[in-house]
Amino acid sequence: MHTFTLSRSTQNLITRVLQYLILSIVVVIIFVPVVILIFGSLKTTGEMYSHPYTVPNPPHWENLIGILTTPTFWVMLRNSLLVMAGTTGGVVFVCGLAAFVFARLDFRGKNWIFNLFTLGLMFPINVAILPVYFVLRQLNEMGIQMIDSLWGVILVQLAFQISGNIMILRGFFTAIPAELQDAAYIDGCNNFDFFWRILLPLARPALAAVAALTMIVSWNDLLVPLVVLNSDDLWTLPLGTMQFQGQYGQDLALVSAFVALSAIPTIVFYLFAERQIVSGLTAGAVKG
Amino acid sequence: MQPLPAIPNLLKLKRVSGAPRRLQDTLLIALFLLPALILFLLFVVYPIFRSLYFSMYDWNGLGPATDFVGLQNFKDILADTVFSKALWNVLWIVIFSLGLQLPLALALAVLVGRDLPGRALFRAIFFMPYVLSEVNVAIMWMLLYNTDPDRGLLNAIVVGLGGTPVAWLGDTKIVLLAVFVALTWKYFGFHMLLYLAGLQNIPAELEEAARIDGASRVQNFYLITLPLLGGTIKTSVYMSVLGSIQQFILVWIMTKGGPVNASETLATYMYRFGFVRFELGYGSAVAIYMFTICLIFSLIYQRLTRQPDYLTGL
Lengths: 288, 314
Known about the structure:
heterodimer; A: 288 residues; mainly alpha; MetI-like fold
């Protein structure tokens, strides 16, 4: 009996060690590209050619400072922030309202309209980009400036985030107990009061999850800005990164510095909002 | 006789107070749905019909489309060997994703499991590439794939092991796999996250009970974990296939679909015709094909996965 438990616990110990070993290898694979990038961003172009994989010693901040002192970088950062704020605010507002109706109210044709929105899940923006471009051009011809405007980017990003986020929020809103709604009505609330004073405060974590997810998607989006924006003073960071890589592709140290600078905001944001992002994604997937 | 007239009055009173209430409700529903509906119809639904219209024209985008060609674009696309190459490449990406990427994600999720000390840290690290932008991931991997062993880490390793440098992104036989590795690096964490959430929903008592009954770890995995993860796997497969069909940015930046179309995907093919060559009619027809593929896949997949409920889990 004693030897049995001993072998069982050694067996468990071996599994644990193996578990950590395999997971550590994956951690290394995840970090190698990131570390190489950060090293590269702290080297001069000459160093990048002579010893590209070593620790930068001493670190050279010239490339990073050079980029940070050009106004272009800050213009791109501002554009990215504007688009992100616009899209995220829009998604939370538009999807919050619609999800409330789908989760809490009844009316004729509800299922029909809901199914219409679920169709949107099948048509990602990458598939629809050319058709969307036609509509933007058409709006332009009607005098509504969409091409080469940050509004165009925001509205298209927003439209393609609607379906998924309505599903996520509807899931969260449905989970709030019906008794609260009944109690609110008995106390004289109408539907709007219930939505505004009871449901929204309770759903704050859900709204935060949707906002965090949308911020990531909008911040990282390249395709919509690529198609919509022409003037370089409207470029967002991903678009600028792509153009920068095309222009200075041979100078690996400089490109590394630019990519590192444009990735840092994402990583910092991720460290703070990991919980919200994860809960939004898993809720969306489980409900979807 | 007195109470009788009171009854119609009461009813009337109720109706009077009820009517504006109902009107108010209808107004609220309409106002709440309108922003989402307008944006969705204008930028998601209407474009499909718009491109259906243009797909029947030979049109370079300058001036109105006047050169009606019927279904010619659709026929030309089917006859184009580059299109079938793109279709095959997408199919390969789907096969690689389902055959390698998802099993890898599942294996790692099971390894991290429910109660491994450091679980949250591993999850955070594995998921990190997913939040990086595709542009940044593409450029990071281009640095690694550099053909010069003095600059590209992968070739430095190959040379260090006594091999000759490989043109990762320049060899038609390797390029798709090279792109797929970068894709996996970025996306496996997302699927792992789904599986971890799914595992969380499986009661620990079930596996405990099976173990007491003498089930081995392998039996436990195949007979309990896997069937109960059915719903999660179904979602993850769906998202993976749809993601593969629309794969664009990573491929476009790393290879532009080359060399000699070896890494062409449906989305790079459409982008090339729409935004590089400005053959907008032809590009629209490609978009219609892609819509159709997405739609047919979604419908078939939903039909297939709905039936056997015991497989799709709780």
